[in-house]
Amino acid sequence: DIASMNAQSSDAKAKETTLSDIAAMWQKTTQRSQERKREREKRKEEEDPTVKPIFVASFVKKTALVWRKVSKQHADQRFAHSQMRGRSKLGEVVTSKSSSYMFVTALIQGIRTSLLKTDLKQRQATDPLVRDDFDHFTKVEFILEQGQKCKFKDYAPAVFRQLRQMFGVDDESYLNSVGQQEGLSEISTQETGSKSGQKFLISHDGRYFMKTTTASEARFFMKVLPDYYRHMKDYRNSLLCRFFGLHRIKPGKMHLLIMGNIFDTDRIVHQRYDLKGSTVGRAVSEAERKKPTVILKDLDFLSEFKSIHMGPERKNILITQVRADCCFLQSLGVMDYSLLLGVHFRDVKEDQVRSSAEFAHGRPSGGGKHQTKTLLKTGSLARVAPEKTHTSDFQQHDGGWSSQDMLPNGQLVTGNEIYFVGIIDYLQFYNSRKRAETMLKGFTYNRQEISAVDPKLYSSRFCNFMCSIME
To answer: What values do phi and psi take at 348, rounded to 5?
Structure first.
């Protein structure tokens, strides 16, 4: 019995050992299985398909932001260059949502109606003028689509028609430019630099500016119109801004002058200056300099550009015309006018290479749109096809006059600059307000250097300054 009991006890211990071993093995197996599962889950997390799209999306987003920034920079450069062209599209296009829409609509309809009047069309542009033509005016009334009744007054239509004809502007081209409302833009005073607060418009092709003016300025201009006409007729090279029409619109009794663009060119005008011969307050701020269409002033010119290179003969021709124009303005009793100067820098080296290549291949220098593109890129003078509106000697190089440089041996050669010049803002009569300004500023500054001085001093100082900056 004892022997049998010992045998059973040893069998039980053997079974317990076997079960404990199995339990331990199962536990180890379970642990390894769990570890493998965790590893698989870890690898699965590392290879999660959502991670890659997030990375790709981030990369695409960053790339898009960089591309957008570069594209914006290129667009800004293209916009700046388009604004810098002579016939720039400044300002904002007038639409039906613009505050000036009604005024512009009435203006365009009035101009078209006036130009298409049969009595003006039947009269030849070359017919001699009489005194009554300078006092004559026409009135038209019409109702806009919005139901607004308007009255349009056209001053001295025959006189302005002859002035336009004198400067190569026929009725059809004038109507196509000024009589088109689509694309017409309004320019802010910040872009023009004007302190008068008047409204500025520019035609869709950039050839004509339209400026509202006060009733007193309109009356003054009509008073001196016969003298202005004779001066422009006697001096075809006059630098005075060309006026092509004077109108009045009701309601509001707004007077508006239409004038030619001094920068009558498709070239890029790289630098622009408004020069008076005065030094008091005649510099622009650093903030204004960042604008692509900034117009610099006297002190800016003297510190940076310093002079324009015309050569002795051209300098004499230009100064003679400046003196003739200033003498005329002095006789009218006006002052505070400016010489608007634009400078285009030609790429002479590239132009010479292209010209040599064309000569070697026997190709002509002209040619439509290709001519214009080449002209703008290289600044060639040989490719310029003269326009009918470039009637002045100072416009013979695509609306401007090329510079001349003198070599050490004394020979004159064509320079790499083209100058666009004109006298603007010359309807300011020396009235009591300007006299008071002269007196007040005279207490603080040297009276010889302030802008508001009497017409005689202003004319003399203006001529002397222009003479001093020309070489």
So the answer is: -65, -40
